[in-house]
Specification:
mainly alpha; 4 helices; flat
């Protein structure tokens, strides 16, 4: 059974914020985040994903709630990966346990 729509949206926003923090730290000394590479990659991904989602919803393969839950889960994986990268870069021996982006409860207060 799917999660409530609001819960999936809040989880997505929370994990997107975590991922954004990870990107910020990664950009500080990496060429992989230069503007042209970012823009081309973002535009392509958005166009591809949006087209695929519209097609799947139109055909009744997935519902909006299922889509929102899936992208929230996917964003969590992406945020976790960035959190691990930042952890390995700034505190590889775990002297400090790094957590990106606050909590879902913090986001709900905004």
């Amino acid at each position: 059974m799917s999660k409530p729509k609001d819960q999936s949206v809040n989880e997505y926003k929370h994990h997107a914020r975590r991922m954004q923090c990870g990107v910020e730290y990664t950009m500080r000394d990496s060429k992989e985040c230069e503007p042209k590479h970012l823009r081309v990659g973002v535009n392509t991904a958005l166009a591809d994903q949006g087209s695929l989602v519209r097609l799947l919803m139109k055909k009744g393969v997935i519902s909006e709630d299922e889509y929102l839950e899936a992208i929230a889960d996917g964003m969590k994986l992406e945020a976790d990966a960035y959190e691990n990268r930042v952890q390995q870069k700034f505190s590889p021996n775990w002297e400090t346990d790094i957590r990106l982006g606050g909590t879902i409860e913090d986001l709900e207060k905004e």
